[in-house]
Design brief:
402 residues, 0% strand, single chain, 2 domains
Length: 402
């Protein structure tokens, strides 16, 4: 039993949500403004997709590297906190000067891009690892939900942010994004630093990494399927029933369903376990993705997108909670770093598919996401029924209150 009860009024969860909210918005600013930056620097437009894919590859590598580093650090919190401060500051400076160096030389822009992507990686997995190492096993679900909440809200706002950015001065948007993210990170570190780490008489032991591999495979397939549905197929599906000008109001609906469901995943984790919840969510996402392609009116499509968001909230939060608790105590960094690396690779493959392979898969474009999600659901179901080495067992159940 823990020597210290969890603090239900802890501000660490909202602070974590704030970091992910501002990071996701910063990424939106970057993705929207990057074509203009490349044009200013005299770099061919064909480099755009290559750079976006390279960004995700760097994120994947740094997620694992930072995670392993966090696990190996002595006096882990203080050293990891200092690393967050330094790299977040470097990231903010690099982000602010991106539009300034675009007119200097192509090499200067690319160099600053690399610095920003590497340093910005520190606010992905390490922020959750920082809190996870100081929280009880039963509190891991709270952190997962807060993390996903910040990401979902920013994703819902992304279409409106993209509209606001068009025709505006990129320097202002980069400055605002960089400073708000830096402030959010500092607030998170200040809040966490004031809270004493939990003391556990019998801390859990991490599962073997091999036991996590089926879960990561399920995550990769499900992540790619969801990416294709949400970011490749959703727009053309909506445009079968609505005008293009309505898209900014329609595209966020999936994320509203996602956010609404996050309030309910905690009781489900407690009742049946995280991985069964994830399995049900993956299969629900697969069913709604497939049905969306056959929707014969806008109202039905909207309903299916909302339910798809509900399913993906169950899937994403359930898989993240499974990975987080499987890594307790001592392998949180490796397990969560690997989790985020797989999500980055799913984004990379989605960008590659949309830019290079979509024409070849046109006939099965709206079936492929459901097929990938179904395969992922079957793997997750097998892992839930026959867990290996502790991965997939609900080892840390707790109340979730976003």
């Amino acid at each position: 039993m823990s020597a210290q009860a969890p603090n239900p009024k802890s501000a660490a969860g909202p602070a974590l949500a704030g970091v992910q909210f501002f990071f996701t918005l910063a990424w939106t600013v970057y993705a929207v403004q990057l074509p203009g930056l490349l044009a200013t620097a005299g770099i061919a437009a064909s480099w755009l997709t290559l750079l976006l894919m390279a960004d995700q590859l760097v994120f994947a590598a740094m997620d694992v590297a930072f995670g392993v580093m966090a696990d190996r650090m002595a006096e882990g919190y203080r050293r990891l906190a200092r690393l967050l401060v330094v790299l977040s500051s470097v990231s903010a400076v690099a982000f602010i000067i991106l539009p300034l160096v675009a007119g200097v030389a192509p090499g200067a822009l690319l160099a600053v891009l690399v610095i920003w992507v590497v340093s910005a990686s520190v606010v992905r997995a390490p922020t959750l690892i920082l809190l996870g190492k100081r929280a009880k096993a039963a509190q891991q679900a709270d952190l997962v939900v807060w993390y996903a909440s910040g990401m979902a809200l920013a994703s819902a706002l992304a279409p409106f942010v993209a509209l606001w950015l068009k025709g505006g001065d990129p320097r202002l948007s980069f400055i605002i994004s960089a400073l708000t993210l830096l402030v959010a990170v500092m607030v998170l570190l200040r809040v966490v630093g004031k809270e004493a780490p939990v003391a556990e008489d019998m801390p859990p032991r991490p599962a073997s990494f091999a036991a996590l591999l089926p879960l990561l495979l399920a995550l990769g397939l499900a992540g790619l399927g969801f990416q294709l549905h949400a970011f490749v197929n959703a727009s053309p599906l909506y445009q079968l029933h609505a005008g293009k000008e309505q898209l900014p109001w329609l595209m966020p609906l999936l994320w509203l369903g996602f956010f609404a469901m996050l309030a309910g995943v905690g009781p489900l984790f407690k009742r049946i376990g995280a991985l069964p919840v994830a399995t049900g969510g993956i299969l629900l996402t697969a069913a709604t993705s497939y049905s969306a392609g056959a929707a014969d009116n806008l109202g039905m499509l909207i309903l299916l997108q909302l339910i798809c968001g509900v399913g993906w909230a169950m899937a994403f939060a359930g898989l993240m909670e499974s990975a987080a608790t499987a890594g307790l105590r001592g392998s949180e960094g490796l397990f969560m770093g690997s989790f985020f690396a797989v999500t980055a690779l799913a984004v990379l493959l989605r960008i590659a598919f949309a830019s290079h392979w979509l024409a070849a898969w046109k006939s099965s474009q709206f079936v492929l996401p459901a097929a990938l999600l179904l395969a992922a659901g079957l793997i997750a179901a097998a892992q839930a029924c026959f867990p290996r080495g502790g991965a997939g067992r609900n080892r840390g159940r707790g109340r979730v209150s976003p």
